[in-house]
Design a protein that fits this description.
alpha/beta, globular
Amino acid sequence: MNLQQSTRRHFFSRCSIGLGSIALSTLINKDNAKAEAPNPFLPNKPHFLPKAKNVIYMFMGGGPSQFELFDWKPELAKRHGENIPDEFVKGKRFAFMNSSFKQNNKLLGPIKKFNQHGQSGMWFSHNIPNIAKIADEITMFRTCKTNLFNHAPAKLFMNTGTGIFGRPSMGSWITYGIGSESQSLPGFVVLHSGPRGPRGGAANWASGFLPTTYQGVPLRGSGDPILNLANPVGVNRKRQRDSIDVINKLNLKRLLATGDPEINTRIASYEMAYRMQSSAPELMDISRESKATLDLYGVKPGKPSFANNCLLARRLVQRGTRFVQLYHTNWDSHGGPGETLTKDFDKVTHDVDQASAALIKDLKAHGMLEDTLVIWGGEFGRTPMSEARQTKGRNHHIDAFTMWMAGGGIKPGNIVGTTDDFGFGAIDQECHVHDLHATVLHLLGLDHKQLTFRFQGRDFRLTDVHGNVIQNALL
């Protein structure tokens, strides 16, 4: 082997910056195929024909109580105050009830009143009358199950398929798999509402070991969507463009010298930020929406809210964003201050009920529901037993809880799974988080067993070595 012979890398590193300019123009040209020009934002082909193109995930942080929302249990109401039979709880662990709080086996009947709705006859509490009106648009998964019962690791598990930090989130896996339809807005966007952000923080929308291009981008619900996105005073658009061009050329020269894919991410991010200087303000300007649309969601212009974020989610999907995640808190109904099943639960349901239903109706009116998958749910549910703090509340529960989905190939007016008389566990068709993930990927045309990324000598995937598509939830 001739050690003096120039390698391809050495050749490019010694070339003039002019050659780098040619490569850069190819890199950021959206008309070139992804294989020829590795622009990570370009759409990519799925494994098979998809039923959905986009996802809007309404994440209810804290763990909504299915017993006060979706899963009416007359036997639980009848046996309120009695001890739950030992066979249900023997060997089970809970977040707090084994240590700090007494009377942990006392059954707590539903606090809210329920009625059946739609041709499907689904049960909904009086707290969510608007969601009840879309009963015939959704599939309700009553037997969801997860592995972890504390908030931060459970949120990570629901988002990444594991409670371990450093793994890619579902939105990252999806944009890695099929890219984005938008070249002027991020492919994966995160919006927040409620009194605090989700426990676990940015790890819930991180890209983990995937290139950082695929991580979620948090947008603010009002004002500047991203701080410092606008040009500083005295810097016009041409000057900004010239600066980015120089930076990109230097980054490209380093990319050719090292082959580090994160430099490609950096180049693409500069270009995206530049385009977002015009696209993001247009996105946030909801003044062109009709009064009827604003009233449908319950939006108050200029006021950040879950309703405002739901409308922005529709606008993002319209503009080609692949995955939008809306976080709303606080659903943690332990019974303590700020977490009661009465006043505080009523407030959080009021915050989300109208806008959640409005999103489905609005997507349908725009002809977008059929290829937009909408997901609603939290990281776990609540126990059928009371957790007696200042008031009666419910503890975290991982064995059975409720989520719902609509659009994007989901069967309307459908119920998957049945829980026992107390709502403690599934008596048929358990829907584990890995199964939910496999189903979401399937609807987007992705085989969860084939969507992999090699890291540290192993092929990783969102569902790890688990997961089955929930076939009876599909059209």
